[in-house]
Each structure stands twice: as structure tokens, then as C-alpha cells.
């Protein structure tokens, strides 16, 4: 799994107070970040092992659908990001995540560009995160940029470090509540069949979402608007009209 690198550079002119406490909290946050990366890597390894060993048919079906989705997304994503080259990693992200990255990048670049007084190291990290459509890192850099430029930064840097530690701790706790983590726990406890059943359910859900993505993207590329798609769904009884009077 690709390791996420967070910006630690402090913009020129910023003076840290309570340095010892700040460093302690940032160290704890970095430790939590490494634990999160390790946990996600373990989840990816176990899920991939179960898919390749027990769920080849479902995995192959999902992979074929993902290829279709990426092909349908490719044109729209590239058009949205004409201002910067992107690598093939972009097409592994969801459409919503990629679009969110484009929007956040446009706002972030105006704030942290070196020509506007931003820190070069942080800007380079943001560029790489945008190329990879790494929304989590872009959001963190945005939060850091907002805090660094805030007039109260000199007296609140410990609060910023505490917020980062809280954020990483929350990320860890959220991962531990997922079905993917439940599958890992079952697999590590030698309850292989339970783990396979969990992953099978996750694959089936992903297949259904991918089928829906293919249908929606195909209709969009054919020129159908969101309004007409909603009307078609209401006519078919798939969704309820948002304008229907409640009794």
C-alpha cells in the first residue's frame, strides 16, 4: 500500500510556542498515522488473499466492471484536470473522490503556491497528492494551510497538533468498525469461512454499485441530464418523487 506523507514544513515567519508539547503531540499523531497505514496494509493483504484464493469469480466480475467504469470516467476526469498532468493512479479512484480532489486542489493552489508566499515543500506534497487523487492528504494540507495562516497560530499551534492527533485517532477507530477489519479479525482467528463470507458480501455490494455506475455514466455520455435520469427512475418506481406530497 502506498504510504501517505503529511506536510510537516512550517511556513517562513511562523514562530512555534510550547515547542516541547507541540513535538510530543505531533509525534503521537505520526505514530497513529503509521499504525493506520499498517492496519490498512494488513486489510488490503488479507482481502486480496481471500479474493484470489476463494472468490475468483466475483473478483473477476468486479474487475471487469471497474475497467468499464474507468473507461467511462476517463474523458470527464481528464477534462476537469487539464491544468496538471496526472498518472494512471487517478483512474483507480471513484468519480466523486476525483472530482472532490479537483475542486479542493483549485482552492488550495491559490493559497499555498510559492509565488503567493506558500511553503515549497508543502506545495510539492499537494501537487503529488493531486496527481494521485489522494483526497485525504489534500484535506489535511488544506486544514494545515488554514491553521498556519490564521492570526492566532502562534498561540494555538498546540491546539493544531492536538486536533491532528484526534483526527488520526478517529481514523483508526473508524477503520476498526468496518467490515474489512472484521474480515481480518476472523481470518487471523482462523475462522476462514467467516472471513470469506464477509468479503463475498462486500464484493457483491461493490458489484451492484459498479453496475449502477456503468449505467449512469453511459446515460450521461449519451447526453442524458441528471434531471431526465431522475425522472426515468421515478417513472420506473426506483425512487420516490421528491415533490410528492406527504400524507
Q: Which features characterize this protein?
A:
single chain, 247 residues, mainly alpha, disordered N terminus, disordered C terminus
What does this structure look like?
The chain has one domain. The chain contains nine helices and no strands. The chain has helices at 19-54, 56-80, 95-112, 120-131, 135-149, 153-175, 179-188, 192-221, 226-235. The radius of gyration is 22 Å and the shape is flat. The relative contact order is 0.14.
Question: What is this structure's SSE topology?
Answer:
Layout: H1 19-54, H2 56-80, H3 95-112, H4 120-131, H5 135-149, H6 153-175, H7 179-188, H8 192-221, H9 226-235
Helix pairs in contact: 1-6, 1-7, 1-8, 2-8, 3-4, 3-5, 4-5, 7-8
Quick structural summary:
The chain is built from nine helices and no strands. The protein has helices at residues 19-54, 56-80, 95-112, 120-131, 135-149, 153-175, 179-188, 192-221, 226-235.
Strand content: under 5%
**Helix share of residues?**
over 70%
What count of helical segments does DSSP give?
9
What gross morphology would you assign? Answer: flat
| Strand tally | 0
- Integer tally of domains: 1
Overall mean pLDDT stands at: 75
Work out the radius of gyration: 22 Å
**Low confidence ranges:** 1-14, 76-92, 150-155, 242-247
How is the biggest beta sheet arranged? Answer: none
What is the N-to-C order of secondary-structure elements (H for helix, E for strand)? HHHHHHHHH
Q: Kindly name the structural category.
A: mainly alpha
**End-to-end span in angstroms?**
52 Å
Amino acid at each position: 500500500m502506498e504510504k501517505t506523507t503529511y506536510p510537516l514544513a512550517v511556513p517562513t515567519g511562523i514562530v512555534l510556542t510550547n515547542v516541547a508539547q507541540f513535538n510530543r503531540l505531533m509525534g503521537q499523531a505520526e505514530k497513529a498515522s503509521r499504525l493506520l497505514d499498517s492496519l490498512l496494509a494488513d486489510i488490503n493483504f488479507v482481502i486480496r488473499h481471500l479474493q484470489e484464493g476463494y472468490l475468483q469469480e466475483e473478483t473477476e466480475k468486479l474487475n471487469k466492471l471497474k475497467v468499464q467504469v474507468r473507461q467511462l470516467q476517463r474523458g470527464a476526469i481528464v477534462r476537469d484536470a487539464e491544468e496538471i498532468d496526472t498518472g494512471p493512479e487517478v483512474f483507480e479512484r471513484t468519480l466523486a473522490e476525483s472530482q472532490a480532489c479537483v475542486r479542493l486542489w483549485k482552492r488550495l493552489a491559490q493559497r499555498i503556491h510559492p509565488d503567493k508566499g506558500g511553503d515549497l515543500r508543502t506545495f510539492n506534497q499537494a501537487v503529488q497528492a493531486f496527481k494521485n487523487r489522494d483526497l485525504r492528504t489534500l484535506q489535511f494540507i488544506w486544514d494545515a494551510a488554514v491553521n498556519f495562516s490564521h492570526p492566532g497560530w502562534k498561540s494555538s499551534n498546540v491546539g493544531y497538533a492536538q486536533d491532528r492527533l484526534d483526527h488520526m485517532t478517529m481514523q483508526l477507530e473508524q477503520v476498526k468498525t468496518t467490515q474489512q477489519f472484521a474480515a481480518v479479525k476472523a481470518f487471523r482467528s482462523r475462522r476462514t469461512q467467516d472471513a470469506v463470507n464477509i468479503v463475498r458480501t462486500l464484493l457483491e455490494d461493490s458489484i451492484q454499485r459498479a453496475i449502477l455506475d456503468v449505467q449512469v455514466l453511459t446515460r450521461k455520455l449519451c447526453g442524458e441530464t441528471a434531471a431526465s435520469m431522475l425522472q426515468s427512475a421515478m417513472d420506473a418506481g426506483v425512487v420516490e418523487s421528491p415533490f410528492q406530497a406527504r400524507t
